[in-house]
Each structure stands twice: as structure tokens, then as C-alpha cells.
Design goal:
With about 325 residues, the chain is an alpha/beta fold. Helix content is about 30%, strand content about 20%. It has eleven helices and eight strands. An eight-stranded mixed beta sheet has the order 1-2-4-3-5-6-7-8, sandwiched between helices. Helix 2 links the parallel strand 3 and strand 4. The radius of gyration is 19 Å and the shape is globular.
């Protein structure tokens, strides 16, 4: 498997926004034959992290390797994180830029890459970002979402309710020192597009972690990410009806115990119902019993393992290949 890192966009201050690109060398080095060369479709994978932390390093390596074995060019971008930018500007805007880059630039950078056949995939908020791409004039051919956050503009949804499911950290205190750390002022305010997760017992919480968890616990997560309160700009669910029967084939994989803001079986079922009522032709759901958020990142969910988690992951990735 080959891998290169490309800059697909620059931040407001010239910061490089990078995407890792993986592909099978066997697919590129196709030997001469009477058959025409098979172009490789692309799959854009958007990472989790609640729009404030995370990076493409979160994407399971076994998923990347399996998709490459299916002849995909696998593109995993980093995007600018809140609160230095709004959700609409950073996570959503940069994801769209990465998608456009796959359409226009990727074919000239990776031999035999097909910019007209692109799948979109994401985990958690990355799944929401993947769904938002369906609203483009030339949307992805197919979408796979793992436990997406849905209905971010519905003020009565859990996206706007206090959430105590993450380990409590110190209370956020808006001191000049904390604010400077949050906004990366030591680096001149350079916009951040990667930030490591806090792992209890392994890493020390940073001001960004404390701020993020404090927003979740206060029920202020969406408002903190989109301060102008234009929540519809970051909620693809309110626009399901625009595409109707043109909505791409979509599969959603969801743990039945997941209760993160905007997540869970209740909201997935609501989305599926509304998509089908709007005319979407193919929307499938895979429920994983006894599992909550990030289930596909557990070792036992790796491709090649036995059990329901790995089975669902494989089904979702095969769905992408079937309909791209």
C-alpha cells in the first residue's frame, strides 16, 4: 500500500491543511492487457472528535487497508478545529474543500484515480460531515456513517442537552492563560487542524480538553462550535428533502447504547424515516447491540476479527464499494 500526504487547502493564516492518501500499488501498476485500465474510485474519510479535537490518525488502519484492497484511493483529511473557526468554516467548510479537491486535483496526483466516483465516510461528527456532502450539486456516489451526530439544529434534541458521559475534568475557567492556550496564541494564533485525544490514565488533560468537555457537560456543545447560532448551516438533516430520490445510497452503523449528543438509535431511525419519506431509494441501518460510541475503533472491530463489530464494519465498507 502506498501513502502520501498532500496539502489540499490553506487556513486563514496560510496553515497547510493536509490529507493522507493511501492506495494499492497493485492497482496503479496494472500490467498491460487487452482490458482497459480500471480507474480507482476515491473514498473520503472524515474523522471524529466533536469538531474540537482529533485528527485523521484516529481512523483505524485496518479500515484504510481494507478499502485500499477494494481498489479505493483512501483520502483522510484533517480539518480546522473549533473554536478558532466556526463549525461551518472549519469542519464543514474544510470537508467540502477536501471533497472538491478529490474531484479536481486527486486524479493528477495519484495515477488512475477517478475524480468522478467518490464515496464519503465518517465517524461520529465525521459521519455528519459525510452526510453534508450529499447536498452538493455533484454529491458522493455513496455514503457510510458510523454513529453520526444528527439534528444539530433541533434545540430539543440531545445535541443541546447536558452530557455527562465523558470523564469529568477540571472546570473550565476563562482565564487569559487558558484562553491563550485554547486559541494557540503561543504560535501566533495559528489555526489548529490536529489535536490529540485525552486518554484517562495515559495522557494529561490540556486546556482544550477541559474546555471541550465543559461545553458538553453544560449542554453548550453546538453553541460553542457555531456561536452565531446558525445551526441549520451545520445540520444536513434539515435539508433531506432537497435531494429526494437523488440522495446517495447510505448506510448507518450505530451502537444501541450510544447516547452522545445528537447520537443514538432514536435519531438514526428518525433520519432514516425522513430520508425515505423524502424519496431516498436506499438507506440501510446496521445496529450493533451492546455497543456505544466509537465501537469500530476497538481492537475486536478490526477487519479480519470475528464478531458483530467487525462484521458491521466490513458490511459498511463493502456497501461503499458496491455502490460507488
Amino acid at each position: 500500500m502506498e501513502m502520501k500526504t498532500f496539502t489540499y487547502k490553506s487556513g486563514d493564516n496560510g496553515e497547510p491543511l493536509e490529507a493522507n492518501v493511501h492506495w494499492s500499488s497493485e492497482a496503479v501498476d496494472q500490467k498491460e492487457s487487452l482490458k482497459p485500465i480500471e480507474l480507482m474510485p476515491a473514498v473520503l474519510i472524515l474523522h471524529a472528535g466533536g469538531m474540537a479535537v482529533g485528527s485523521n490518525a484516529m481512523i483505524p488502519k485496518s479500515q484504510i487497508a481494507y478499502l485500499a484492497s477494494l481498489n479505493f484511493v483512501v483520502v483522510s483529511p484533517n480539518y480546522r478545529l473549533c473554536p478558532q473557526v466556526t463549525a461551518a468554516e472549519g469542519p464543514f467548510g474544510d470537508s467540502l474543500s477536501a471533497y472538491t479537491w478529490c474531484q479536481t486535483e486527486l486524479p493528477s496526483l495519484v495515477k488512475n484515480a477517478d475524480g468522478t466516483r467518490i464515496a464519503a465516510m465518517g465517524n461520529s461528527i465525521g459521519g455528519t460531515l459525510a452526510l453534508s456532502l450529499a447536498l452538493q450539486p455533484h454529491p458522493p456516489k455513496v455514503i457510510a456513517c458510523f454513529y453520526p451526530s444528527l439534528y444539530l439544529s433541533d434545540l430539543d434534541s440531545s445535541a443541546h442537552k447536558p452530557f455527562a458521559g465523558f470523564p469529568p475534568l477540571l472546570d473550565w475557567v476563562d482565564t487569559p492563560e487558558n484562553k491563550a492556550a485554547l486559541l494557540n496564541q503561543s504560535a501566533g494564533g495559528a489555526q489548529i487542524s490536529t489535536f490529540p485525544l485525552y486518554i484517562p490514565g495515559v495522557t494529561q488533560p490540556q486546556p482544550r480538553h477541559i474546555w471541550f468537555v465543559s461545553q458538553l457537560r453544560a449542554g453548550n456543545w453546538v453553541a460553542a462550535m457555531q456561536p452565531d447560532k446558525n445551526y441549520e448551516a451545520i445540520d444536513p438533516c434539515v435539508r433531506f428533502g432537497e435531494k429526494g430520490a437523488q440522495w446517495p445510497p447510505t448506510v448507518i452503523a450505530q451502537g444501541d447504547l450510544d447516547d452522545v449528543p445528537g447520537g443514538g438509535v432514536e435519531y438514526v431511525n428518525r433520519a432514516v424515516k425522513e430520508l425515505k419519506e423524502a424519496g431516498a431509494k436506499l438507506v440501510e441501518v446496521e445496529i450493533v447491540e451492546g455497543e456505544s460510541h466509537l465501537f469500530d475503533m476497538k481492537p475486536e472491530a478490526a477487519l479480519g476479527q470475528d464478531g458483530r463489530k467487525a462484521e458491521v464494519v466490513k458490511k459498511a465498507l463493502d456497501f461503499l464499494r458496491k455502490y460507488v
